[in-house]
Protein 1
Amino acid sequence: MKLFSLFAIIVCLVQSSTLIASDQATPELFLKNGVTAHRGNSSEFPENTLPAFQSGIKVGADWIELDLFLTKDGKLVVTHDKTTKRVGDKSRTVAHSTYAELKTVDVATDFRKRHQKTKQECPFQQMPLLEDVLKLVKQQHRTRVSIQPKADCVKQAVALVKQLKMDPWVGFNDGSLTYMSQVKQLAPKIPVFWDRGANTDIDADIKIAKARGFEALVLNHQGITPEKIQKIKAAGLEPGAWTVNDPKLMKQLLKQGIERIYTDDPRLLLKLK
């Protein structure tokens, strides 16, 4: 009887430790390959949908990236544009619509047409909530998610991240200095990838990034030069490029020293590394 009781206690302790571990991220387990799946694996699945994010994780990108808006009824939704016109079967302005209204839009419509797929091959997809994606990401400890706020919703996004205890799984990226600075004010340990244009003043950007505590500068690929890459690295920042889908350009940028590439085709980029 005593032996059985001891065994039961050991089982309970093991189960408890497993539960604790599943709610905590070990930094050493996260992948570090410099591949950001832009809007998920959007070359193979409709952008900013759960299948695209699931695929980005499955193929082995170390980060998946998503875009964020706030609905009329205060829901944080994952979509790139102000309206659903480009991706959906009907046009709705995100900020002027409730989530119930937005859920009726088939955001796989554009992808299905461009890839000449049937509805059976590419079924209806609704716009996901940020919470849906975060919970998906939290189920594993290899891939993290970078959030790009397309509206003034950083405070709400960070609050949700903290509520779900997901700080280790999350980063933020955008070109808005206001939004990215707000991230660091609210959550200093969450990494920020500051997106910059092709013709940006790299010296000024480096000074700002260092002063604000950002971790990376991600440049439009058309403006990248070896000199800019060297300056970014010398400042202790990670140099990145967005958004690159051409394999020749991928190889060129990697050879020049780019450490992170945003791509719609993470599977292709991983093959080249």
Protein 2
Amino acid sequence: MGETTTAATPLLNLVLGGVPVLAAAATVVWSLAGHRTTAHTRLARPSAACALLSLTTTVTLTTDSNSYWKLAEAALLLLLIAAVTRWSPVREVRIAVPLAALAVATWPLPLIDGGFLERTGAASFWLIPALTAAAVGAYPRRVDQRRRAAVSEARRAQRLQLSRDLHDFVAHDVSGIVVQAQAARFVAATDPGQAVLALERIEKAGLNALEAMDRTVRMLDSDQEASGAECLPPGVTQLAALVDDFTAAGSTEAHLHLPPETADALIHAREAGAAAYRIVVEALTNIRRHAPEALRAEVRFTATLAGVELQVTNDAPRASPDRRSTVLRRHGGLGLPALTEHAEALGGTLTAGPHEGGWRLTAILPCKPPSQRSRSDLHDQRTRPDPHPPGR
């Protein structure tokens, strides 16, 4: 009877030693066969259970007869370490991965007949593949996190650009609509003809705002194969119409000073020309909203060694603001800080502040004058059709 018990003990140890291997194999098969969002993200707890089983058998049952089981078990645990590191939530990774790494590092210790140094060396040796498996799982996780962060940042930049476009272009037209509507209300009873003219200007400003919104939507619509000309923002060629519309829409008389050579430089420097248009739109919109009583505004372009200097100046407003100006001044915008960043990104500057009782905005936009461009560049630019012909 004693001999039967002695013979059964190694067999029992061998069978019990295979339990962690079967558990780890079942976990690996479940993760491969299950759905990614369920099996992969819920892999940490079964892996931790397998690691605890492995540690238990390492302490109690490891003999020379079941060392092959432990080797297979270590290989399966390495697969689980990589998978858990790749897919599981971080809070679960912090528990399951160290347990599995400890199980892999300590499985050969009961088989070593040596001192502390020998056992420490063996554990360190087997810890290397555990760390490697964790690195294999962590690398694609990090790449995926960086990709999601890049997508999130791109979406944020797109939303910010959309808000800036709406502020730069639509707010200008909407402010004109408000001014014209207020003017029509005051003159409707005494001069119906002027009210009709105001309504025509309101219609034109509304159509311009709709066009700006349509252009912004086309820029965001990735499925629509629009040509590059359709998506380009307005530029220098629209400045004259912009200033004329501003003068017609309110009581402030605006004047544009744009020498032909400076206009040519801005037309060919497309980014600088678009930035100049947006800066003028923002400056005129701020005059309309914050100084509607100003009598005169001046938009002046001057060629400099650094590029082109743009100044938008309005004189001091009249002393008695009326009710309409109060309505327009209630809320400010964030256009100037955004345009300042845009000008600096192009290598220029933008400043604004009080000037002789009024306000002055000054922007320096670097652009290469025509004499410094190559003949091929000039030929390409001149033969390319202008997507934005002059308004008037």
Protein 3
Amino acid sequence: MKHTTKSRIFKILSFFPNRFGYFLYHFLQNIGSNSTFDKKVHATSNTYKTVTRILKTNNVDIEDIRIAELGSGWVPIFPYQLILEGKAMHVDTYDINEHYNTKEIKKLNQYYKDKYNFDIESKKKYPLLNKVSYFPKTDICKGDLKNTDLVLSRFVLEHVPPNIIREIHDFLFSKLKSGSYILHLISPSDHRAYSDNSLSLQDFLKYSEKEWNQIQTKFDYHNRLRLPQYLELFKNDFEIIFFEHDIINYESESFKKFKKLKIHNDFAKFTDQELMAGSINILLKKK
């Protein structure tokens, strides 16, 4: 679906009351997805490998630790992988929305049942692995994190307003025990370009804040923060012990598309590398 069509649909949905708007949003996302369940597992497995690589490089072991996930997404594949493959003790997953689907979770249980022996918590609304606790429609700042060793987010922060990111990290700093870690995987590029290759991955940087807010909705919100802005948000309270990002390939089509853009003055202070830095991964430690 072209980004213009999707944007128009989201704009229409944003005028409906939340309950009805999100019902239609879920319906359209489900029928519009061209990803099979196997593809979803494979994609999440790649993310899991990235997470374990970063943690291992920095001498962090997920075995027997308690993990909090910020943003649960649509299917709890990642918590299952952390527990069944990584041997994490427990995963608490928080989401301000409620996107889980019983049918998809049953597929997930069936997918893993032959390889792993595990128990299902059947008394809850969703038939989840019993070491997964799901907190839908719940701000993580309402959570009990005193025993949490690691907080993880996957492609969530780019969809969170900067002031809320600050609030979340103030809360995490106040509640996490000393020596706890936070790992964020961030996708700072214009997500409309994923379904429309005529767009640059930085296309949305040509707009003013006012113009961009007229284009996006609550269903596809993107804060457009650049790499230095993320680092600035975290550096005062937490020790940044690791970060990485994509490096510019000056011969790529992506760079050629980027150079054709007229970047808005709001982003004029950033270098090309700072504007284009994608796949940002940041590991924080409570000082």
